[in-house]
Structure formats: C-alpha cells, structure tokens
Amino acid sequence: MRWRICSCKAYDKTERASPGLTARRKCILNMDRHLYLLLTIFRPKPIFMRKRLYLLLAFLWMGVCMLSAQTKNVSGRILSAENDEPIAGATVLVKGTSIGVVSDAHGHFTLKVPESATELIVSFIGMETQEVGIKANLTIRLKSANEKLDEVMVVAYGTAKKSSFTGAAEVIKNEQLEKMNVVSVTKALEGTSPGLQVMGGTGQPGSGATVRIRGIGSLSSSSAPLYVLNGVVFDGDISSINPDDIESISVLKDAASAALYGARGANGVIMIQTKKGNAEKSTLSVKAVWGFSSRAIPEYSRIGIKDYYETSWEAYRNALVGTGQSMEKASEYAAANLINKQLGGYNNLEFNL
C-alpha cells in the first residue's frame, strides 16, 4: 500500500468516511500529518534554495577540514630506571608515523600528535625500547639493555657469559639463521661477523667457499679456520652440515679466544653447536621454500639445418674471396668442398658426414 502526504482535510475526510479504522492505522495517519506539517514549515522557498545549499556545503567542508587538522600536545620526561637521572637525546616517535622529537638536556619533550594517535615509541642507545600510551603528562623510565652482556656463548671446552669473556668472539644465534634462505653453513656466515670473510669457490655446484678470519694467516700453509662441531674437531666438509640443525655459531677471532686449541687455532676457530632434543615436549618444524628463475636476456635466435648450410657456405666463400680468388671460382669451390673440408673434415681428411 502506498501512502501519500496530502492535506489535513483529506485525512479528516478519510476518518469521517471510515469511522472503524484500527488503532495502528490511526497512528500511521497521525505520523503522516506531523510529517506533512514539518515539511510545510521548513520547506525553503525556491528563490533561496540554491544559496542555502551552497552555504550548507561550505560549512560541511570547513568542518571536515577542522576535524582532519585536529592535533593535541603531549609532554613528558624520560628518566633512567636505575637512578632516575634524566636521559638527554632520547627519541620519541608517534607509532605508525614519522612524527617525532628528541628529549632535551633535562629529559623533557613536547610533541604535537594527531588525535588518532594512541602510542609513542621511546628509544635510546643502550636502553630498551618502550611503547607507551599517550597521556597528558608522561614520565617514562627506560631500562638498560643488558641482555647481550648476559648472553651465554660457546667457547673452547665449555660456555661463558659474554660479560665475563675477554676475547674477541661473535655469536650467531638460531634466530638469525632462520631469517636467512641459505643451503650451506658458509653462506650463513656471510656478513654476520666483523673480520670474517667468506669468498666463493670455483663456482661448480656443491663446491665449498673459502673462509678467512682476520685475513690470511700463512703464505705457505693453509689459512682456513678450525671447525669444532659440538666440542669435537670437525675435519669433514663444512657444507655437509644442515643449517637448519644449527643452534648457534661462535666465531673465535683472536689468540686469547683460540689459545686452548694451540697451533690448529692460529687462523681462528668456528664453533658450531647443533640443536638438541627437549624432554618436556615434542616440536615439529616445517619449512618450505619456493622460487622461480628466468633468463636475464631474451633467448638467442636460432637457425635451422637449411639456414646453417647456407650460412656456412657463404662464410667459406667469403673466406676464399679474401685470399684473392674470384667470386665465381670461390662459389664453385665452396659448394664442392663445404661438407668434406668445413663441416665434416678433420686434419684435411675428406669424408662425408
């Protein structure tokens, strides 16, 4: 049923004609009456319709611009968690943006952030990075990053904390190896430790790379480092070890680190520790790698058998012309001796293919 907004007199006539209307229909009729009255009162005159529309659009546009440009000020202070000393030069960034400031000499900072921002990222050299919620006044206490000093590293015939180790060594953890898409241990060592050089071998498939620690140690003998696998000297091919089975790699560089291995560790020591089973729970790891390869340049144009003979004959003829023969004699000689002396001959022996 379609309902039209009509005059109040029409509704009165409808009620008088149908006195037995239900309560629901009377309610609908009353709502239509009120809607009709509102439209009649607020109906703009045609002469002002366009101006009012333009003004309405202008106000809406100004409101959108004001909402998009709304910012708020955030201030605070950055202190050290150990002694509450102010930290100067700490970086404060709005998460997800490039908006940021640096704290002053007293650790204070003031930053204008968008209304939609909810978190700040605070970082400083030697301190742990923190993400804090945005408030009016912030007091941020940064903790020292001591996890590297407490790191346990594998050394000669045992383990030691990095804070108590005095030699020059570098530890490559399993987390770093998992991010690399490599098929050999030597490839995993590239660019992971200062002073460690990994150079490609012969280029043949399966050939190992050349590893040097702090340059060449000897001109007459080998300069390869000593490999130690799970505490045992490893004399096999280092490329045969699966990188996914490695827990950590320790690179011992100086004499203090490799002194326990004597002359065999003169060129440095690479200690490899493999993964071990866990008695508490079983773990299943699945790793899938896929890719594609294509030529760097398009495929060369190739010729068939017929074109190959014609091209060979033309080259043979031109070579004979270059020796002083005429074009006719060179063509006849090339046609008669092309297969025997050029395409099938060996040491000037004439035979057919």
UniProtKB/TrEMBL annotation:
Gene Ontology MF annotations: siderophore uptake transmembrane transporter activity
Predominant location category: membrane
Example of a GO biological process term: siderophore transmembrane transport
Subcellular location: Cell outer membrane
UniProt record similarity statement: Belongs to the TonB-dependent receptor family.
A single Gene Ontology CC term: cell outer membrane
Membrane topology term: Multi-pass membrane protein
Protein name from the UniProt record: TonB-dependent receptor plug domain-containing protein
Coiled coil: none
